[in-house]
Amino acid sequence: MKRALVTGGSGAIGAAICRRLAADGMHVIVHANSHLASAQDLCRELQDGGASAQAIQFDVTDGSACQTALESLLEGGPIQVLVNNAGIHDDAVFPGMQRQQWHSVIDVSLHGFFNVTQPLSMPMIRSRWGRIISISSIAAITGNRGQTNYAAAKGALHAASKSLALELATRGITVNAVAPGIISSDMSKDAFDSAAIDRMVPMKRAGKPEEVAALVGFLASDNAAYITGQVISVNGGMV
User: Fold this and answer.
1) Minimal CA–CA distance to 178: which of 138, 226, 123?
2) How confident is the model at residue 218 (pLDDT cuts 50, 70, 90)?
3) Degrees to nearest 5, angle at CA 91 with 87 and 113
4) Which residues are catalytic?
5) What does the alpha-carbon distance between residue 52 and residue 25 come to, in Å, rounded to a whole number?
6) Are 101 and 151 in contact, with CB atoms under 8 Å apart?
7) pLDDT at site 164
8) Which pLDDT value is given to residue 193?
9) Which CATH fold would you assign to the domain 3-233?
C-alpha cells in the first residue's frame, strides 16, 4: 500500500484530496498544524469507511519540527505521494503590506515546501516511484490585487516544481503543481459572492474541492507517469 502525506489536510481542498487518495487505496497521512482535531475527525471518517489513515501535527515552517516528524513517519517506510497543500493568505495592498504579512505567507507555502519535500525526497528516490504535487493558485498565473505575497509564494512553487521535476525525472518520480481558481470553501465564500463568480468565471460557478482532488488523484496514479514539470489549472476557464 502506497503512503501519501497531505499537508494542510483538514481544510476543504485538503480533506477532499485525502478522501480521494484513500478511495484510491493509499494509506493517507493527514497533516495539521493548529487544527489537529479536524484532522483526527477526518481520519476517523476514512477509517470508518474502511480506509487506512492517520493524523500528524507539525508546523511546516519549522524545519527541525518537520525533520523530527518526518523521520518518525519514515520508520514505517517511504512516503511515495506528497501533496504540498498547506498554505495561508494574509492580504493587503503592497504599499500597506507589513513585513510579517510577506514573510508568514512565504514561510508556509515556499519554505514549507522545502521543509517537507526535501527530507522525503531521498527515501522516495530509493523506492524508484513517487509523486510530488503542490497546490498553487490562479494568483500565481494571473496575479491578484492585494495578494503580491501569496502570488509570489505560489509562483515560486511553479518554478521549484519544474526544476525538481528535471532532477527526479529518471527516478520514476513526477513533480507537478495544481493551480485552482475559485473553489467552494468557507474562505472563498467570504471573498467572492455569486455576482463576482458570475463575472469572473466563464463556467459561472465556483469549482468543487472534489474537482481539484480528482486531478490530484490522477497525477498521483500510475496513469500520470509521463506527466511531470507541469502547472495544471482547475479554474472553470478563467485563464
Assistant:
1) 138
2) very high
3) 20
4) 150
5) 8
6) no
7) 98
8) 84
9) Rossmann fold (3.40.50)
Matching residue, cell 505567507: 105
Residues 143 and 148: their CA atoms lie apart, in Å, by: 7
Query: What global pTM score does this model have?
Result: 0.96
189 confidence band (pLDDT: 50, 70, 90): low
Average pLDDT along the chain:
96
Q: Could you tell me the pLDDT band of residue 185, with boundaries at 50, 70 and 90?
A: confident
Domain locations along the chain? 3-233
pLDDT tens readout for residues 93-109: 999 999 999 999 999 99
**Which three cell numbers, joined as nine digits, stand for 195?**
455576482
Cell matching residue 162: 519544474
